[in-house]
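thought: user wants a sequence for this fold. calling inverse folding tool.
action: design(structure=
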């Protein structure tokens, strides 16, 4: 249910400082806590020691010059973080040395800022530049932190210093990011979120209620943009962020920070109840979108980002403060960071009391789009043979950071990525690598369909690589269900290619008698005319074996194609398996073997590739894949099973079950029932998947002269055995 925030009278009385994320009441409790042993006092002592070292250095506010990763860029980032930290230490210690340092740095900025034009290293003319930074996004991040630092020391400053800092620095920055760049400020996008948060918080600190209204509802106060519109449109009803986990993590901080400031200044707006508690849902969903501490790396994601990122540290602290759910303490314990705030104090004290309980990671389908009906991001999980997860992506395009990867998937096992996604082609803030920006290969390879684990038609990416077209179309999630048999899902899209329908059914199937899970994958392609169909699978590990002969290039390599990402793939080998089972096995660094078994008709060619062709600056990682190719086909079923097995232990020098145990694989359909029979480790099973629209229960069917009943979407039957 939406909670309407319109027609609420703006705040009329200037609150006592600090008045944003931290209140005077919080400060009082925190001052008591730092005098007692515990996580909070340790976090304070650690931060104070860091700040003391930095305060011993002279203030450096350089004239902006460099792009991301360059010296001046990084110095201005260090400065806003140092001002924030020193402000916190001042509030808790009441030592004016820290307030004076923040004052002096703000005055240095107040002297510099009026002299600045737009940044000399601005990215492109189409992107709004900053003045201190090469893009206005970083300017907004600077303001979000700096306005809090100013709030912390406000009461320690003279009226003259406050006037100079506000008129020469903070107000000009706020106006530059709002009225000076309406296209960004009013935009429903993470850049707009940071801008509205910074300007709105500045409004609370400097008693500018009009700024707050514009931050909430856009510059015209129309409600077509602004912070509330971003809460409505950027998140699904379940709290999934349109651009994917990596940018959900990044955008979370301004959402959490500004929401907390709204609650502290205008509790009558009931911001944490807005849209059925969407802020809390967004925090929890961000945690769910991770495996072994790292976020699922879809879209433009840097794969090293995880739940210990500072944005989620703030988010988890807020979530625990709102709910006191002990599972959030488990995540906070893993993050191993205590923020110095009222919410952080609650987390620290609860952890000191040992109140943490294991956070529950779920098998779940997160609807995409503001209505939750623009596809979904599906997570299937199993603990049967170690911590396993399948990520299936029948999700929306994800705006400009989205990839052309409809119906792709990834697999994780024993803490490692097994079937992988490239993520973003970027070395964040490494200036030598294209100024730390997204590399050209992000467009030419990482976003292209062939860099993912989904069907490519005629070596052309989905939507012909057009983001605007992609944003207009999304897959349809037909169903998702989880049960003791495992998890199963199906989705389709008819618009990725003209005249081509793509359908994919995936299941993470539990086989408790064998103490293992397998991944079943059935990809159906139906087209109006014949096409070349490619289905890549990108894997992490060392190729061990295939059960079919390969013709391998050992002295000279050529690229697999000329465009749409194919130009970046070296063709290293190829093979044409005979009709039956085609097996590819590899060993992952987690010490487990993986065999991908395909049911082939003798017409599927396997092409083995490595990334790195047409890459003169060595920007791409040299990862491996194999591509199943079918020529001149109007209809094809790609059917496969991924089987984890065995163990390799080099330290103790033993190897167990290095070969696949799957010996038979069959596929058939009875009306809307998909039936797969397998023999694995000497045991035979029938996997039945109910594809009907309504998912009827207790459906009877016959198989090999035996009667069976499927209740729900997925069932596993032991063949020639009375037990189900």
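)
observation: tool returned 724 residues.
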């Amino acid at each position: 249910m939406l909670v309407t925030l319109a027609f609420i009278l703006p705040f009329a009385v200037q609150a006592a400082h600090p008045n944003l994320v931290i209140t005077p009441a919080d400060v009082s409790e925190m001052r008591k806590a730092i005098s007692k042993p515990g996580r909070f006092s340790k976090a304070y002592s650690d931060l104070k020691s860091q700040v003391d070292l930095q305060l011993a250095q002279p203030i450096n506010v350089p004239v902006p010059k460099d792009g991301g990763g360059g010296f001046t860029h990084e110095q201005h980032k260090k400065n806003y973080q140092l001002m924030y930290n020193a402000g916190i230490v001042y509030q808790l210690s009441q030592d004016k040395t820290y307030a004076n340092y923040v004052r002096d740095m703000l005055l240095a900025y107040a002297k510099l800022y009026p002299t600045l034009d737009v940044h000399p290293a601005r990215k492109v003319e189409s992107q709004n530049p900053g003045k201190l930074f090469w893009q206005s996004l970083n300017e907004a991040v600077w303001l979000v932190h700096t306005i809090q630092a100013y709030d912390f020391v406000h009461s320690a400053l003279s009226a003259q210093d406050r006037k100079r800092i506000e008129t020469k620095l903070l107000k000009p920055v706020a106006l530059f990011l709002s009225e000076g760049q309406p296209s960004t400020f009013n935009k429903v996008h993470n850049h707009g979120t940071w801008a509205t948060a910074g300007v709105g918080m500045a409004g609370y600190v400097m008693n500018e209620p009009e700024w707050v209204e514009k931050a909430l509802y856009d510059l015209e106060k129309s409600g077509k943009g602004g912070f509330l519109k971003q809460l409505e449109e950027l998140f699904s009803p379940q709290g999934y962020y349109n651009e994917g986990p990596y940018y959900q993590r990044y955008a979370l901080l301004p959402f959490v920070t500004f929401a907390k400031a709204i609650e502290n200044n205008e509790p009558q707006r009931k911001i944490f109840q807005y849209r059925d508690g969407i802020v809390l849902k967004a925090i929890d969903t961000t945690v769910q979108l991770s495996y072994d501490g790292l976020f699922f790396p879809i879209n433009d994601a840097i794969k090293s980002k995880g739940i210990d990122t500072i944005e989620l540290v703030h988010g988890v602290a807020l979530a625990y403060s709102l709910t006191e759910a002990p599972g959030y303490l488990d995540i906070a314990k893993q993050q191993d960071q205590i923020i110095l705030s009222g919410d952080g104090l609650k987390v620290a004290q609860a952890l000191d009391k040992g109140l943490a309980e294991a956070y529950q990671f779920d098998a779940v389908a997160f609807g995409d789009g503001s209505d939750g009906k623009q596809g979904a991001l599906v997570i299937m999980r199993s603990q049967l043979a170690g911590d396993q997860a399948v990520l299936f992506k029948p999700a929306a395009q994800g705006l400009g950071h989205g990839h052309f990867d409809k119906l792709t998937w990834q697999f994780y096992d024993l803490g490692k990525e097994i079937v992988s996604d490239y993520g973003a082609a970027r070395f964040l803030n490494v200036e030598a690598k294209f100024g730390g920006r997204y590399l050209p290969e992000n467009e030419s390879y990482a976003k292209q369909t062939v860099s993912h684990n989904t069907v490519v038609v005629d070596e052309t990416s989905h939507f012909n690589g057009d983001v605007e077209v992609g944003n207009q179309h999304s897959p349809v999630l037909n169903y998702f269900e989880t049960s003791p048999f495992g998890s199963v899902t199906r989705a389709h899209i008819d618009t990725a290619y003209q005249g081509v329908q793509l359908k994919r059914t995936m299941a993470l199937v539990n086989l408790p008698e064998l103490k293992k899970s397998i991944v079943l994958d059935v990809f159906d392609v139906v087209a109006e005319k014949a096409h070349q169909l490619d289905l890549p699978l990108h894997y992490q590990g060392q190729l061990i074996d295939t059960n079919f002969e390969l013709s391998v290039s050992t002295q000279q390599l050529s690229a697999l194609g000329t465009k749409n990402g194919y130009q970046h793939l070296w063709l290293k080998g190829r093979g044409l398996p005979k009709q039956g089972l085609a097996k590819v096995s590899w060993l992952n660094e987690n010490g487990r073997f993986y065999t991908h078994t395909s049911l082939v008709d003798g017409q599927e060619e396997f092409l083995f590739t490595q990334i790195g062709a047409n890459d003169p600056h060595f920007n791409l990682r040299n990862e491996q894949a194999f591509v199943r190719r079918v020529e001149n086909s109007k209809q094809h079923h790609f059917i496969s099973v991924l089987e984890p097995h065995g163990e390799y232990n080099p330290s103790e020098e033993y190897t167990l079950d290095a070969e696949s145990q799957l010996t038979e694989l069959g596929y058939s359909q009875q009306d809307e029932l998909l039936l797969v029979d397998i023999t694995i480790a000497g045991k035979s099973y029938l996997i039945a998947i109910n594809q009907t629209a309504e998912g009827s229960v207790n459906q009877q069917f016959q198989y090999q002269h035996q009667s069976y009943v499927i209740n729900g979407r997925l069932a596993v039957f032991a063949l020639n055995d009375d037990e189900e």
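thought: summarizing for user.
answer: Here is the designed sequence. The first helix runs from residue 24 to 33.
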